[in-house]
Amino acid sequence: xxxxxxxxxxxxxxxxxxxVNENISCGACCGLYNVQDLSREKLxxxxxxxxxxxxxxxxxxxxxxxxGEEVLYKDNNKRPYDEFYHCPYIGLIGKEELRAGCLxxxxxxxxxxxxxxxxxxxxxxxxxxxxxxSYTKLPENYKRIIREAADDWxxxxxIITEIVLINAFFSEIENRLQRKIDETDIHMNQDLIGIxxxxxxxxxxxxxxxxxxxxxxxxxxxxxxxxxxxxxxxxNRDRPVSRYDLIFREFGSSFKSVEELRNAESIMDGLFxxxxxxxx
Length: 280
What we know:
By secondary structure, the chain is mostly helical. The protein contains 12 helices and 2 strands, in the order H-H-H-E-E-H-H-H-H-H-H-H-H-H.
């Protein structure tokens, strides 16, 4: 892989977000997270199985196409976003297969430098030129912080397309600190990086998201699956909305009682109060 600095120079918005390093990558635009069971274990098993199966496929157009059709047939279950294509050629890539990526890429194992992405649903041109909205809609410092703080491809890919959520979270932290922050701050302050990691983790394990809803994000501009406003009717009579309404909406929150709402607000208070007390 090219160095981050080299990739950053070529990326819209000055920060490369796709295949960051051996552990960090995002397959969200390939529909990676558009599956029924979004648990880390199930998703990893799916990618591992595909990677192993694809390693046995002859690098011939018909064989590759048949592989994709068979994967989609076997995985033919209802997806959270019907209009969001889920690519069957996303698997595990890299020297030790530690991150999600395209099995058709010329650098993927077994491809001998040949680009087979033209056989995918969107074709090679789209795969090569598409950049998700996060490239241009997120401030450079926020992108670098998320890229540095994420632990692996799973948590990174789930959070990096959440433009509104990321902006709201870091804006609140910067308001508390009365200054902007960047990746240098998290390198020098373990408490701050702990707060950011906790925030990233909530994208997966937010306790106030109904189990029937998905943690995935539909980030395209057609607005087919916009986040629903939080319904406070009957539980929040002292004020119309929560002070963290935007964050709660983007987490997909649903509160059954005033107590649940107060617990969620307490969690956010804890994060932001800790951030505000840091001496950085």
